[in-house]
Amino acid sequence: MGGESHRGGVAEPDRSAVEAVRAVLDARVPAQARVVVAVSGGPDSTALLALTAAARPDLLLVVAHVRHGLRNDAADARVARDHATRLGLPLAQRDVTVDRNAAEGPEAAARAARYEALVDVAAGAGAGWVLFGHTADDQAETVLLNLARGSGVRGLAGMAVERRQGPVRVVRPLLGLRRAAVRLIPARGGLPVAVDPTNVDPDQRRARVRAEVLPALGRLSGGAGRAEGHGDPVPALTRLARLARDDAEALDEIAERSARRLLVRWGPARALALAPLAQLPRAVAGRVVRVMLAEVRGRGDGMSAESVWAVLGLRAGGALHVHGGVWVTSGGGWLAALPAGEAELVERPLRLPGRTPLPELAGAVLAGGAEAGRGPDAVLPFGGRVPLPGRVPAGADLVVRARRAGDRLPSAGGWTSVADLLARSGVPRAVRGLVPVVARPDGDVCWVAGVGSAAGSADAVPVRLTRG
Description:
Elements lengths: L14 H12 L7 E5 L4 H13 L4 E8 L6 H14 L3 E5 L10 H20 L3 E3 L4 H13 L4 H4 L5 E4 L2 E4 L7 H11 L15 H14 L15 H29 L1 E3 L2 E5 H5 L3 H16 L7 H8 L6 E4 L3 E6 L2 E6 L8 E2 L4 E5 L4 E5 L1 H4 L18 E3 L5 E3 L6 E4 L2 E4 H7 L12 E3 L5 E4 L3 E2 L6 E8 L1
Parallel strand pairs: 1-2, 1-4, 2-3, 4-6
Antiparallel strand pairs: 5-6, 7-8, 8-11, 9-10, 10-11, 12-16, 13-14, 14-22, 15-22, 16-19, 17-18, 19-20, 20-21
Helix pairs in contact: 1-2, 2-7, 5-8, 5-9, 9-11, 11-12
């Protein structure tokens, strides 16, 4: 999709606004980059498109418009199309379906659908950036909405000027500009805009914040208009967002370092030892848990604080399912997380002698031969003993698989179940299906990685688990 053709502009654009947008984009978007501009047809996104075209004429712009079907938005689509035509830019329109009864509410569901559609537009256009027209006033409203939900520091930080959304970067070039100044751009340039009635709908939370909460705060705040009893709370709220973002980023950095030190990775599973986790400040520990859950889910967005604190508060022996498809257990001194419904190790013949790859664990079982005998059986990262050596019968047809109900190994008192051995060794319940077991096809267990070995005959050969 091309954006090289001639593009118009706004009549005598406000140079300070153009420079503000240029400063944001120059710091984040390289020359000649292909960029998607989200245009709803309203005054803010109209100003964003005009200012971006004026500030960075080198960029290859694509106008994107999303129709969510929550109201009659034909006028919005027409305005977005007119702007693309006027500037000689390609237009990508996406229609999305929004669940009006979504648990998070139709506003949040529409927002999530819109972001997903815009990421899809960017992927189709070969663009690495999507621009949104949020202003400082939007930031203040977002802070108040998050505050009303009982958000933590991250919520009080509001919206970031730049953040990653899947494979693209979301950038908000107008976040430092006031809404009134932004809306002068299309008004002075004679540009058509669409009017969204939900902006003044009292049933919408953001509209109530705009009409009720901000004016009430203005009567408490200082600054402009104080003598008349009508201060402007937006500067104070945006300052709060900047301060909260500084704190949140510092805590996130500490948590990332802690996660690198503490997080154990075992195939698709992730685990945290409870003892060192308990030594961390609660704000950091919660973020470390969030890193664990995000790695298992494959994404970090859409995870509630309630889910994180529920995981952190799990008692030994407890388990829960976290929204987004994660199963978490606590036990043996570990918190462990696994994708819900995750398959256990696939059963496969043991190569004897040889190397049996276990792609689920990015490892292999070595049996027989010099390589298998060079070291002890691997200790599981969650615990486990070190049988010296691990051994299996040389002349048998064996398989590598996950444990099964009823699996057992011989012990001094007769037999011990594999499940009990794994539990005593501190292997978390969520991970036990990912511990390799070597057994005969009839089910008799010969060896359990890191836990025990049954073979004692003279023809037994060494076996061990290796990673990487």
